[in-house]
Design brief:
Layout lengths: L2 H29 L1 H9 L5 H21 L7 H26 L1 H8 L6 H23 L4
Length: 142
């Protein structure tokens, strides 16, 4: 690889990382996850710890992804990690839904304002059953 190609690759990689990182920070800022979490848990004094943990987590997992590291973990640990990862994704989706007021708008458009709870439960059960179907039938056991 020539020096010019290496420099171009470094420039593209850094630009992509900067764009994704900026997007993540903007996304977290718009959702207001950190202040909301501090408000709900009544831990405003520790808000800097939340921010630092997000930064450390992003840097660590970026570094781990670049190194293509493989973790040989016990199935119990993988199950616990999967539960926490699923909770994170679910809470992030719920926060996005709450901020954008998706459900009330959807309920008004399909004329189901009085059945909002049923709409929410249908979405939750559909997501849960879809995930179970995927993991039970499409992911081979090793």
């Amino acid at each position: 690889m020539t020096i010019l190609k290496a420099a171009l690759l470094i420039l593209i990689g850094l630009s992509g990382g900067l764009a994704v990182g900026t997007g993540l920070v903007a996304f977290l800022t718009v959702l207001g996850i950190v202040p909301r979490l501090a408000q709900i848990t009544k831990t405003h004094a520790f808000i800097h710890w939340y921010q630092r943990s997000i930064i450390i987590g992003a840097v660590f997992w970026t570094w781990t992804g670049l190194r293509e590291a493989e973790f040989c973990l016990l199935k119990d640990i993988v199950i616990i990690y999967g539960l926490f990862a699923g909770m994170f994704v679910g809470l992030l989706a719920a926060a996005l839904t709450e901020v954008l007021n998706v459900l009330p708008i959807l309920a008004k458009r399909i004329h189901m304002v009085d059945k909002l709870l049923w709409l929410l439960m249908a979405m939750v059960l559909g997501k849960m059953l879809g995930s179970l179907f995927h993991w039970l039938f499409f992911v081979p056991f090793s």
